[in-house]
Specification:
This protein is mainly alpha-helical and 454 residues long. Helix content is 75%, strand content 2%.
């Protein structure tokens, strides 16, 4: 099959040299399942904590924060490795490994009945999630030419949104669906079946990504390919510092900050909306099946909004200066997360379903989390030098992982001792601070010259 050349557009997108149409179209399935895998466990965790592990509702925030911190430490460590390795051995192998490891982690979680066992199983999932998250950002930056980054990010965002909606609005509810369909009367057994299904799909996607993701290796021509084993090891660890050094560029530094808040926004949105509903449902003595249904409805509204707004943010990022688009995204996140101040702890549920007054709040949160995410991805794709893109994208993902750690630690604490909206209000403040920084840098960010070359 011939490569798509510089002048060819597919769905209005100029592809980078060497990207095949098969790479382009299969990418959307891989992007769909990437987001599904990354979103599912955080949304499903309240069910795991209460139904699998028996954690009391008063401690849900504490345990959520502790477990996610352990998970993100693993993600941070392995992301550093995967980003650099993808420049050496190719994107497809790292992607396939990520799906296989994450799926295996979910399989082991199905047998977890104590917190320590769950943490260990989740850490295996995290080694795979690190690869998936790192490659999702890296391949998205590899495929389009500079003038089409916003469109490519926006269209990819559609499939990311479908994956997220499928995960939080359908798969999270699958245990109650299986019980209602009389597959099993046991909600815990139904939860196990749900994890088995996703494990199988993860293995299938690992094979798909191995054979369809373009395995370009930008660092193939870097001097040093003939080094001794000791020299290669030294070179490997030296490469890990490249991403940090790239932050001397103000655009890269700002992108790292956006990754911090955008990933924090996502984990606050997915994890703490689910936890908020679960805690309110327990207080109101609703059944696990009822709480899963309400969680699915709430997440569907929030992620459905994110799904619709994703392409619009991508188009906006192509029409405006990239930092201007970032400022708009951060402003939406600041307002959206701050709007949760209007909702009391139990007001999320009314008459056995999602409370009507909660619906516009969920829409605002969805707009906010997608605004920072999409505009940040477009900016880092512009700013990451082509020759070291894997390493820079790796550190971009690490910055996001640090954001998740802070969001879960502080958010879990605020959730337990203050109010259910606490994590959202905290990240509204964080988004607002970064918005001020972005406004100050608005006219100082320029793409690197090597990314502008034909």
């Amino acid at each position: 099959m011939a490569f798509v050349n510089d002048s060819v557009k597919v769905m209005g997108i100029h592809l980078s040299p060497g990207v095949r149409k098969s790479n382009f179209f299969s990418w959307f399935y891989v992007a769909f399942f990437s987001t599904l895998m990354l979103a599912f466990l955080n949304a499903f965790q309240p069910f795991i904590l209460t139904s699998f592990l028996g954690v009391p509702k008063a401690d849900l925030g504490k345990y959520t924060g502790m477990i996610l911190v352990f998970s993100e430490i693993v993600i941070i460590t392995f992301t550093l490795i995967y980003g650099t390795l993808s420049d050496r051995i190719g994107r497809s192998r790292i992607y396939a490994l990520g799906f296989a490891l994450a799926g295996s982690g979910l399989f082991l979680i199905s047998f977890s009945r104590t917190v320590p066992v769950y943490i260990m199983s989740r850490m295996l999932w995290a080694t795979g999630a690190a690869a998936i998250g790192s490659m999702l950002a890296t391949v998205l930056a590899d495929y389009p030419r500079e003038e089409s980054r916003g469109k490519m990010t926006g269209i990819t965002g559609i499939f990311n949104g479908i994956g997220s909606i499928t995960s939080v609005a359908f798969l999270v509810r699958l245990p109650s669906i299986l019980v209602n369909a009389e597959v099993t009367p046991d909600i815990v057994k139904a939860g196990q079946y749900t994890l088995y299904i996703i494990f199988g799909l993860a293995l299938f996607t690992a094979v798909v990504s191995l054979f369809t993701v373009r395995s370009n290796k930008p660092a193939d021509n870097i001097v040093g390919s003939g080094l001794s084993l000791q020299g290669k090891i030294s070179r490997f660890f030296k490469d890990l510092t490249i991403g940090a050094k790239a932050a001397k560029d103000p655009g890269v530094a700002l992108s790292y900050g956006i990754a911090f808040v955008a990933r924090g926004d996502l984990v606050v949105g997915v994890t703490f909306v689910s936890l908020w509903v679960r805690k309110a449902a327990l207080t109101l003595s609703l059944s696990p099946g009822q709480s899963l249904a309400i969680m699915g409805a709430a997440m569907g509204i929030m992620q459905g909004t994110a799904f619709v707004s994703g392409p619009l943010y991508g188009i906006m990022a192509d029409k405006l200066k990239r930092v201007t688009a970032v400022c708009i995204g951060l402003a939406m996140a600041t307002i959206g997360f701050g709007s949760t101040w209007l909702i009391a702890d139990l007001d999320v549920i009314a008459n056995g379903g999602i409370a009507p007054r909660m619906i516009p709040i969920l829409i605002m949160v969805g707009l906010g989390e997608m605004g920072a995410l999409i505009t940040g991805q477009v900016l880092i794709a512009q700013q990451a030098p082509r020759s070291i893109r894997g390493s820079v994208m790796g550190f971009f993902t690490v910055s996001g992982a640090v954001g998740i750690v802070i969001a879960t630690m502080v958010g879990g604490f605020l959730f337990d001792i203050w109010r259910s909206a606490g994590p959202f209000l905290f990240f509204s403040l964080v988004n607002g601070i970064l918005l001020v920084c972005a406004l100050l840098l608005r006219n100082k960010v320029r793409p690197p010259a090597e990314n502008l070359e034909a």
